Amino acid sequence: MKKIAAVLGLLVAAAAAVAVLQPSGAGAVDPPATTDSVTVSGQGVVLAVPDRAEISAGVETRAQTARAALQANATAMERVLQALRAGGGTDVTTQTVSLSTSFDNQGTPNGFVASNIASATVAFDKAGSLIDAAVAGGANTVYGPSPSRSDADTLYRQALAKAVADASQRAGVLAKAAGRELGRATAISESGDAPVPFAAKAAADASTPVESGPQETTASVSVTYELR
Length: 228
Prior knowledge:
Elements: H1 2-21, E1 37-48, E2 52-63, H2 66-86, E3 90-103, E4 109-123, H3 127-136, E5 141-148, H4 152-177, E6 182-192, E7 196-197, E8 215-227
Antiparallel strand pairs: 1-8, 2-4, 2-5, 3-4, 6-8, 7-8
Helix pairs in contact: 2-3
């Protein structure tokens, strides 16, 4: 009987070992599948001539007292704001108002200086005329124009589509060179750039010369593809 019990014990132990070494059914764990991939970058560029511009114009005034400097500045700036609106400017908005002590060449305080600057948006071909209008209204500080497009979002999406197509072509070349076929895209990330002036053409009807040339709207993507 002892021998039979010992044999049965060995058989049970062997069966348990087989169950551990060879899992099946719900308890089975398949090894993770590995897939070859290739990651490439793509770039898309869209050229478009700016159709609007932002102009910043303001007034700087000096006086012996802070109150006098601010009062004189407010009076002068009101005329500039009216000139910006009359000249066709839209979205007229105050950018900065400042008041500080002024100094002479020896560094000695000699009064106060007040500054007020506002911005306005206008069609690009009217930018020079708006600058002239602001100066005629009393502006002694002018910045711009800053060119832009009213359909900037649409242009960026076009550049983004070109970037994805460029990435696909690059990945296809690499896959073919490696003797493989290109599979589906498994990951995409994007990055964009601000419009960059490219070329320039003078605006003919502006008394103050302002140049309007194409801007580059660019988009970049990184795409990972499966290889088959």
